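Our consortium's second objective concerns turning raw sequence data into structural hypotheses that experimental partners can test. To show how far this objective has progressed, the report includes one record in full. It was chosen at random from the queue rather than selected for favorable results. The single chain below, 190 residues long, was entered without modification.
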Amino acid sequence: MISKALAFLTNFLNQELRLNSGVDEDLVIAGSLINPDGSIAENVENKIVVSVLNIEHETFMKSPSAHKTDGGNPLGKLTPPINLNLYLMVSTNFNSYLNGLKILSSVLTSLQANPYFTKQEHPTMQQPLTKLSLEIYNMPFTELIHIWSGIGAKYVPSIVYKMRMMTIQEEKIKKEIPAITGLGNKTNLK
């Protein structure tokens, strides 16, 4: 689910850059600036890199347990869905500082004009995604310093977005509930 959301977002931004900036290659990728071993990632040069900083459980919207039937009599109880928020860092990693800022500005403009995505408006959104929304997440400078040192990279111009409400729902039936077949006690009321 998370990979589908990032793939959708990077594909959308690449299409927007092609339309609005006239570029003919994918400049936005999902990934990290640094490999797990601390070396610099090879595929991120002259790219806008979208990285997941954090995954947060959205506790504001608790979902009741869901039920599912396969068309027959038995009803199955499903585990309640999990609603997630992703914190995404959008970084520019271009050799030309000014060109990188220009492309980053185009990305910001695209997300400002399109902060909310639905399956109806964007049929390329893969199931089980149905909606995504993005908002800029303002981060204090001290936290930003900690994030960049934790990543192990030198600072490059970037912005953090909060992607709201990705819902993860396992469709496996957790418990089978027998169907009601009749009324138990029959009493004669007169």
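The partners drew two points from this record. The helical segments are 2-21, 97-113, 141-151. The first helix runs from residue 2 to 21. Both points have been shared with the crystallography group to help prioritize constructs.
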